[in-house]
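Bumping with the actual sequence this time:
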Amino acid sequence: MNILVTLAFHGGAYHGFQVQKNGRTVCEVFQDALEQLLGDRPDVKGCSRTDAGVHALDFKLNFHADTRIPMQKLPLALNRYLPADVRVLDARQVPEDFHARYWAHSKEYTYRLKNSAIDSPFEQGLYWRSPSPLDADAMHAAAQQLVGTHDFAAFMSAGSSIADTVRTIHRFSVTREGDMVLFKVAADGYLYNMVRILCGTLVEIGAGRMPAEGIARALESRKRSDAGPTLPPQGLFLSHVYYEPEGGTG
C-alpha cells in the first residue's frame, strides 16, 4: 500500500531532509527506522528537500510497503526507532499514484525572528535574533507587494542554476507576538533560499535600511544584489503542506 506520513522534526542536527553523502539527513534516519520496523528499506518521497538546519511542523512523505500494522499504530511503532528530534505524527493510506511532492498545490513556511537584545534560554536553535527595532506593520505592508505571480530571480541564492524563476505567492503575513516576529508565506513553489531571502529583505525594510520600494526594484531587476540578506536557517519551519481533497489529506 501507499502510505502517507506526517513528520515533525528539529533540523538542527541534520543536513536537510534529502539523503546526502556529506551528512546525516532526516530521510536517512527515517529509512533506518523503517528498515528496523519492517525489515525493508522502501524508497521515500518527501514533499520538500529542506535546507540544513531547517525545521518542520508538518512535513509530508510517502512510501510503498506491505505491512499489517494498523495505520493508527504505525506512528508509535516508528517513533520507537527514531531519534527524539524526529517524530511521526500521523500515518494513513493514500491512492497508489499519490506523491507527497507532486500532489502538493502549495506549502507554507514560517520564519521566527526574536526581536530582542537577549536570547531565550528555552528556545535555542528555534529562531534567529535581531536586536535592532523592527516595524512589523511596515514589513507586513511591504510583503503584500510579493503576493501574486512574479519572477523571483532576485530572491534566489546566487549561483543557483534554476531557469524558471516564476512562482506564485498566495499569501504573506508578518505579525508580532511580544518580542517574536512571525513571517508566514504560502506559495506554489520556492527557489533555493527564497523564503530566507524574502524575510531578510523585509527585515531590511522593517529596520529602515531599505525603502519599501526596494521590493519592486528587486522584482524588476531580477538582481540578487537588489534584495536583502539570506537569514540563517534556524528560524525557518515548514509549517503546512496543502493538498487537494482527492490527495487523501483533506
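The C-alpha cells above came from a reply further down the thread. The chain has a mean pLDDT of 95.
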